[in-house]
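Exam revision sheet. Question 4 asks you to relate a sequence to its structure. Input first:
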Amino acid sequence: MKFIAFLSTALCFLHLTARAQLPVDLSGIDRKSGVQAQTQGEQLTLRWPAGASQQGELVVNLAKGEPLLERLSLGNKAIATALDPVFLLTVGQRDLTKRGGWDIFFDETAYRPSQTYPVTLDKQGVEVTTDGTRTKVQVAGASAGPFSGAYEITLYNGSPLLNLAAVLSTPQDSLAILYDAGLVGTAQPWEKIAWADPDDLIRSHRVAAGEAAQEKAVKYRTIIGQSASGSVAVFPPPHQYFYPLDNCYNLKHTWFGTDYREMTPGYGLGIRHDPLGDRRWVPWFNAPPGTAQRLNFFCLLSTEKDGKALDAVKAFTHDDTYRPLPGYYTMSSHFHQEHSDDVLTHKPLPDMPGFVETFRRTGVNIVHLGEFHGPGSPRGPEAKRWPELQTEFAECARLSDGNFLLLPGEEPNNFFGGHWMNLFPKPVYWLMDRAEGQPFVEELPPYGKVYRIKTAEEMLRLLEAERGLAWTAHARIKGSTGFPDGYKDKPFYASDRFLGAAWKAMPADLSQPRLGRRVLDLMDDMANWGLHKYVIAEADLFRIEPSYELYGHLNVNYLQLDQLPAFEEGWQPVLDAMERGKFFVSTGEVLLPTFTVNGVGAGETASLDARGRATLTLEVDWTYPLQFLEIISGDGENVYRETISLTDTEAFGHRRFQFTPNLKNRTWVRVEVWDAAVNGAFTQPVWLK
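Answer key, structure tokens:
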């Protein structure tokens, strides 16, 4: 009898334990934030000011085994119910023995064995905290293969915007990852699915019970689920989600349907990666041991239907365009389109090639090419080289029109070391070789002056003679691993004809709060080396067509120009702005129209008083809520960072900041600004004395 009584007591205890309410910590909520949070039974309800006098509501189901998102509401309308965030983590192997280690592009991760794990959530506890205008709900107990961590849901005051993330880390070394994600319901959550196709036409699909999952090529990276009461738009961070590739193909980055990849029981929709990418070099995301990798996506709630919610999503990226700013023109660099070869080989081409149409529709005013990267004859024979350049110049002249300027350029990868780009202020005929007895320069009808280059010294002579600029392409990675460090003491690097380096977000790492730290660190190193060098944005892409996913892989320079030069008159003002540091770099969502230190702008020299105090003024325009601003300075040896949290900002704003940092004994200062989706912008240095 005692044993039966003990067994009965034990079973009762196990039952009560299984039904025990999940511990919820609400002590980190700022009650003045406008967010209301309460628990009742096995539900945690949060209400936040969602803009336009609306209130958003998130109900979290605390019961184990039940969908995490009990309800998503806007106003008094339940937009979606009984949904689970779903994450599929694909884990592969990075080869750290190759040059560059973690700073690697030429890896074969996609072609080595890998495994995909559904991220599971064993709800172990919930913590809710306030950080400025955002509220974070953290649910412990997430795991996937060798990774573990938590789910995070972030609500943003002033907007019906949420970010859902699985934040995971691993103790294992040498891993690279991809992730698919979305929302899934075991009951049918949607009546319709909507999206914009690659031609920017709104399409829709009436949901059928049990229909197989399908992948979909879309524009704006967004898939929308429509219910009886409204819509939920699902989309990734616009730039962070795309690891570097040679080609920005539209790789069907969204999905919807039942049992996606046979790992998501129920009907869902979301975002995805093609594990093989563009079938070239496919490096995936770095996942160093101990780093918190944020597998995340955004949701936007809307009471609109028939795809109208997409308008609100598009606003975050200015409809995937680069917004005009008074006094600035946008420039993007490093494109191996090989249009000249297409013309010379008589490929059928429209009057306006697809890549030109795409750039123009994206709001890029100036495009700097990198032709003859594969096809072409940069080292001769001359019978081919001169007509190739003539064709490039003629096509650039023909396609430059209105507010668009197409500039010839190359990635010579000769003479200096590593890879580098060049840009002249007018058409220049030159050859990367010279036969015995030929002159360095001569007049050659019908081309005019032609140059034949044999050495680094002669390359510098050419740049000086024609006032061209050169800079390190994809510094410290790919074919430039070890550069410009390897030639920072060479005469050509010290020359004012050598601009500095170019920035692109690679390698990719989802634990970083900024993109492209590799070159941002180099920017600081170059400034500490003592010469006035600058960093421009580069895309380093090959073929581009209107249906491609260009925006996610793109970045631009906002050059300070009074007007766009005409091709026929030369484009010296473009090089002048670059050479003087009169520009800032942006992914597009964060803009920096004004930056001064003691009244002088980027590329200029400011004087400090005896105490070293300075007045730093910065204007910022943004779409996604901002995350932080960093004032970065150096003294010739060390780098100093002052980080200012901007989590008090809401979506879509403009603010003029003024700071008085102590810059005593510093020789330069610059600024970076990053938002909640890891989009950002950075200035060029102001030099100090």
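Marking note for examiners. The chain has three domains: 24-316, 319-427+459-588, 589-688.
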